[in-house]
Structure formats: C-alpha cells, structure tokens
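User: Predict structure, ligand GLP.
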Amino acid sequence: MKITIVKDYAAASETAGKLMSDFVKANPSCNLCLPTGSTPEGPFEVLVRNAKAENISFANVKGFNMDEYAGLGRDDPNGYYYFVKQRIYDHLNIPPENTDAPEADAADLQAACDAYTKRVAAAGGFDFTLLGIGTDGHIAFNMPADVFHLNTHLEDLSEETIEANARFFDDPDQVPKQAITSGVGMLFSSKVIVLVACGKSKAKIMAEWLNNPVMDPHLPASILHLHPNCTVIMDEEAASEVTVK
Ligand code: GLP
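Assistant: Predicted complex:
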C-alpha cells in the first residue's frame, strides 16, 4: 500500500483526480467504480477538468456506482447515481448505457443485489476504484461487521453513519436506514484502488487503521493492507495521528 500525504484537500483532490484521468487515458475501455460523499467532489472536478483539457474520451468507459441508498431511484437528488451523474456523466462523453448502479428502488432488493454482482462480473469487474472512508472505517457502505461480505448486499446503516450523512438531507429523518453496497470482495478485486481521506474527523480512524498491520472486518478498510495496487491519499489533518508514513 502506498501512502501519500499532501497538505490539504485541494492537493488531495488534484492527486486523486490526476490518478483517475491518467488511468482512463491509459485504459480507455476501463470500468470505474465510483463513490459519493464530500471526499470525491474535488477529485471528480479534477477528473472532469483534466479529461476536457487533455481530450480524454469516455466513450468506452463504464461507470459503476459502488453503492446506493435503499429505496432511492436514479432520479432522486439524494441518490448516489444522481450524485455521480451530476458531477461526472453530465460533463463527459460517457454513453448513458455505460453507466450502472444497484437498482435500490426495486421491490426485491435481494434480487437487485444479486443482479448487480452479476452485471459487474459480466463487465469484467472494477479496474479503478476511488474510495472515501467513513469515520468507523467503512468503505462504500460495508459497515463494521464480523465478516467481510464479498458480493453486493443490503446493509443496515449504523447510527454514526446515518448521523454523518444527515448533512446531505433537508430533513435528517429522511436519511435511509439501509443501503445496497458492492461487497468488500468486489472492491478488493479492483485492479487499482485509490482511497482519499481528508480532515480532522478522519484522523482517528486513519491512525487506528494504518498504525495496525492487521485485517479486521470491524474496520472494513483494513483489508486494503493486502491490496497489490492501493494508494492512500491523506491531507495533513487526516494523517496527523498516523505514525507509519
Ligand atoms: C458514505 C459513503 C462512503 C463514503 C463515506 C464518507 O457512507 N457510502 O462511500 O466514503 O460516506 O463520506 P465523506 O467523504 O463525506 O466523509
């Protein structure tokens, strides 16, 4: 695992965004696994800016949301597909049929999970995954648990996560209590992983993870210790308690 510490969020966004745009330039038919939250906003802006400046084509790129709130459809402004569409798809020449996400508004959520696992596998899996991290160490919506779930599945969100994500909703009671997420196995199978963590609120979990060379499903990101091509980008605040640098 490569650890990169930069000054602030702007620098982390530049670094992660460039890794993404360079990857698409070198791999024009790649499958991107895309996150949401505050963290990817900057990297996504840099990706779009670089793609336009360098004429990088997304005509053969496939975009996959890594997760989605249960019950929310693709047009829901609080939904994760909508988030990625607004920030990436609307600005680049990626064909809409090349974009995918779990069908979280389906009547049968288990069937929607299984179908997503199959669609991602049929496409050849993820090539490049951009990750954020929750304050409890979750990646995508894989909450701390006794096991690592490999495939797409339904998760009950922890109170901590519901509270942390309430800032995106007009009414905190609107935050869904469940989400569909790509399993840790699907994320780990990505050829390249870039995880970005910024700000003081991430300092504790980054230290808990990176200072301890163990793999523990109660800290889902810890599986990335073993990944052959994973870069962790932190700003100075997030890295402030990390001793292994
Ligand atoms: C949500 C998302 C995660 C994201 C996390 C942290 O739980 N499902 O993918 O990493 O929020 O978000 P933020 O970047 O806003 O701190």
